[in-house]
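subagent[fold] <- orchestrator: predict structure for attached chain, return tokens only, no commentary.
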Amino acid sequence: MYIDGLPVTGVERTIMDCAALIPRWKVLGLIDSARRADKTSPVALRQCLAVHARRGRNGTVNFRKALELLHDDGPIPIGHLSRQAAQILVASGLPEPAFEVRIYDRFGEFVAQVDSFWPEGYVHMYDGFTYHRSRRETTNRDIEQRARLRELGLIVDEFSFDQINRQPEFLIATSRRNFSEARSRRTLETGPPQFRF
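subagent[fold] -> orchestrator:
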């Protein structure tokens, strides 16, 4: 591949090379960013692995394991915090969540798009520095949406960039406790959930 006459590696190979230097959730974050920009696809990434993988190449194992976590369909996480938190929580024993799930009430009215969703009735909202700014209207909207999610019977947890990066034990303990509570609620219910997605 050439840009302005200079040989360069393609997007897929660049991500594979980065996999030798960064943790898996960051590799997935790079893939998410490239996919949102229509610069690559799961098929192209797997083709890159097939062509360039070899025993002893730095990053091959990390790249392969990242691709194993990649879903061909479904929404792509908007921010890297979803991937980072998911990796921490899956390693602690929680199931992998779905990302960017749109929640509707029983009348079909849109309520909110959540960062991470577990079908047991548990959701995460992440407050980072890029996509969640502290403007008054955004803050008011977020508060209203999260209140409505709770009215639907969902357990909603909110975590900041700093909590995910500096307090993973808090993320794990809170998530495990509230995921268990959400699952218990679903087990006790006799009717269908009061939300759809």
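orchestrator: received. Logging for downstream: The first strand starts at residue 2 and ends at 3. Residues 2-68 form one domain.
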